Amino acid sequence: MRPNCFTAVDNLNLPFNAGDQAYILVSSAMVLLMIPGIAFLYSGLARRKSALSLIWVVMMSFSVIVFQWYFWGYSLALSSTATNGFIGNLHHFGLRNTLGALSPGSVLIPELLYSFYQMQFCAVTAALVVGATAERGRVIPGMIFTFFWATLVYCPLAYWAWGANGWALKYGVLDYAGGGPVEIGSGVSALAYSWVLGRRNEKMMLNFRPHNISLITLGTILLWFGWLGFNGGSAFGANLRAAMACWNTCLTAMFAAMTWCLLDYRLAKKWSLVGWCSGTISGLVAATPASGVITPWASVLLGVVTGVACNFGTKVKFWLRIDDALDVFAEHAIGGIVGLIFNGFFAADYIIGLDGINMEAAGGFLNHHYKQLYIQVAYVVAATAYTFVVSAIIAKLIDLIPGLHLRASTEAELLGMDDDQHGEFAYDYVEVRRDYLAWTPAEKEQREDGAHVIPQHGIEGHQDLVNSTRASAPPTPPSEPATKEEKVGASSD
């Protein structure tokens, strides 16, 4: 390895191919574009009154991750000098000792570039997780959760799979671009956060549908584009394995999309665009651990199996009574698990070796490497259990801190997270009120956290819900004057 002590006249670029570096730089930018893609996808899937809030939490989570990854995240996730099998050390704290070093992931690119590329992976995973706040979660506790989740959940998972001494890497697990850290990490964490957060108010869910399918489609296309950098770039060079990963990514996504649409048609006798988007994303998820490992014909089969598994996986939240509002578990956790298990069956040694580096890979069951199947299953079980338990503990501990409770009030949920948490709106036309006639009186000063607000609602059932909540609340002590909000509420009753 190139030493980290060098002078200003040393050319640190000499060991590296400029084309490979350019390819990973472009791939990094492509993966970054997935974050607004997730924001648009989640926004479109929600109701109009919480559409902006989901864009905010996704984009702000990126801000949190950039700081966390620079501060200690990269070092904890991918340190090359840690000797344990579970988490890295602080050798690269603040990006120390990365400038001229070979990357631990590949000798083709420098560590400075590798750390930047891997940051996008952590950011995409965090963006997927914060979708669990949908329509009833307060945003600042969600951001605090993101920092500690990245440190205690994502970093260990990434080290297991890709760290120089990670136990999963040494065990022989085949996880090409993140079935464990990214897909199981996001889907299972979102399920755990949703469990701690609690279900949305059932009375507010009548006739619920995604509010903007155009935004869902835009988000899906941005994700698809970024995923080619996600999976193609995980070959860490402009080589045949990258090209194969891109091919397999598209094959899996499109066969999963067709499968999902057919399954939805059998029930509704209509061709759903939301179904196409959901199927596409589930296929992209399954391709994440498998696209640089299996053959194209196996990718076609993977797309069909994933479309079926993830489509029926949307029922799991009803069995568990956990309100995973955006189906993060069904698409990401289940899709990632299917892709990882496919590696155990269909991993091909000659596909893995297309990068010119991993020329002695063992392959999977069809390569007569039979133990690869139980290696993959053991990894899935370990990653799933660790992720759910630790994510739930982090969420619950934050929820117990005064002022950091995860859940917004019933009135805030009815009003919408856009109004309650942000005071801005995805759609705010002149003289056209949100939720038909719903409105909150304007204030010169920002309300204190927890202030009781009585909004006026044009939907009779919603106004009745507010009135019943208000009637059950303890009365204001007589020694205290009525607040401005209560006066406004009284005048509107």
Summarize the structure.
It is built from 19 helices and no strands. The protein is mainly α and 493 residues long.
Describe the fold and architecture.
- This protein has 493 residues and is mainly α.
- The chain has helices at residues 18-32, 34-45, 51-78, 111-129, 139-162, 167-171, 179-197, 213-232, 240-268, 273-290, 296-313, 316-320, 328-346, 349-352, 372-400, 410-415, 417-422, 460-472, 484-492.
- The chain is globular, with a radius of gyration of 24 Å.
Helix fraction bin: 55-70%
Along the chain, the helix and strand elements come as HHHHHHHHHHHHHHHHHHH
The biggest sheet, with number of strands, parallel, antiparallel or mixed sense and barrel status, is:
none
Task: Count all strands and give the number.
Answer: 0
How far apart are the first and last residues' alpha carbons, in Å? 74 Å
Q: CATH class of the largest domain, anyone?
A: Mainly Alpha
